[in-house]
Amino acid sequence: QLEKTLTRKLLGEAEAHMAAGRYDQAVPKLSLYLGIKPHDPAPLEMLGRCHLALDNLKMAGEYLRQAIERDPSNRDIASLIDEVEKRISRSEAEAAVGRAETILADYEPGKGPGARKEAEDALREVLDKDPGNEWAAGKLKELATPVSVTAASVENDVPGGAAGDESREAKAESREFPRVLLFIAGGIAILLLAAAVALLSLNLRGRTRVKSHPLQGSLSLIPMLDIVSLLSSNLKTGRLAVSAGQNRGEIYFEKGEIVHARFRSYDGKSAFHRILELQNGDYFFFNHLPKVKHTISEPLSLLLLSIPPDEQPKPAKKSGNTMQKIGV
């Protein structure tokens, strides 16, 4: 009866926040509800709507895909997934246009076939993302148009006599000047190549680090309760590490159930409750579960219900906290 009362109040408050446009305040309510009833598609759909409104497209897609797995015939969820995919595609197309504009700003016909190919590839990427992009199609046609004016035609227009001699001297000097520029450009190209290799090395190292953390981010963007509920509802096994200044904590999951937690000198439920209070810091999830003692045996729903009133996670300011109203 207590669980039914709590879930009803959480869902009602979340709906009120969403109706008022306070989607960031609705997310913790829905996460708490999902922790109690992880197989209910309703909070998953509502979390997807909230993150879509907050422009967290990847997170919205993740929640909506979980919702459609639990309720495959729900057309509203399918429509929301289509909207998320369209907005992700539009965002990728805008990013491709930005990259193409940057490359074309530095492009000159005399830079050689490599620069031209880079510009063409960037424009084709835009057309792959957005086939109807007229700007990219027009620029691609401009690159394919050959230059009609040649150096020989310019020389034929130069008159003879003294003016012609002066012109020939000017041409000779003009030929020497590009050689100097080519020498300087060669040095700059070597430096740029070295910088590109260094950046590529750093990027590869960064990717290697990311691969070891399938889920990571900042607690200032996603509440800790939301992360714990997501791992629990997906039956994940591994270790969730939290870093907040000098404070370090860990929550251990085995097939979605929390089996151990530690935070500073605390272990078990006390450590879990204190980790939930964190509102700033970074989190990293590791798929590997080391051998640890099992200090927690209760499911997540009972863990949340057992939070002492003075240790409850503090949501956004609102009169009449749900947990305090029902005396949990």
Keywords:
328 residues, alpha+beta, 6-stranded antiparallel beta sheet, 62% helix
Map the helices and strands.
Elements: H1 2-19, H2 23-36, H3 41-53, H4 57-70, H5 75-105, H6 113-129, H7 134-144, H8 151-156, H9 161-211, E1 215-218, H10 224-233, E2 238-244, E3 247-254, E4 257-263, E5 266-267, H11 268-276, E6 282-286, H12 300-305, H13 322-325
Antiparallel strand pairs: 1-6, 2-3, 2-6, 3-4, 4-5
Strand adjacency order, main sheet:
1-6-2-3-4-5
Strand element count: 6
Strand content: 5-15%
Spatial gap, N to C terminus: 13 Å
Q: What is the helix content?
A: 55-70%
What is the string of helix and strand elements? HHHHHHHHHEHEEEEHEHH
Oligomer: single chain
| Number of continuous helical runs | 13
Q: Which structural category do the helix and sheet elements fall into?
A: alpha+beta
Rg calculated over all Cα atoms: 30 Å
Tell me, briefly, the overall form. Answer: elongated
- The average pLDDT is 77
The major sheet is characterized as: 6 strands, antiparallel
Low-confidence spans: 148-163, 208-212, 315-328
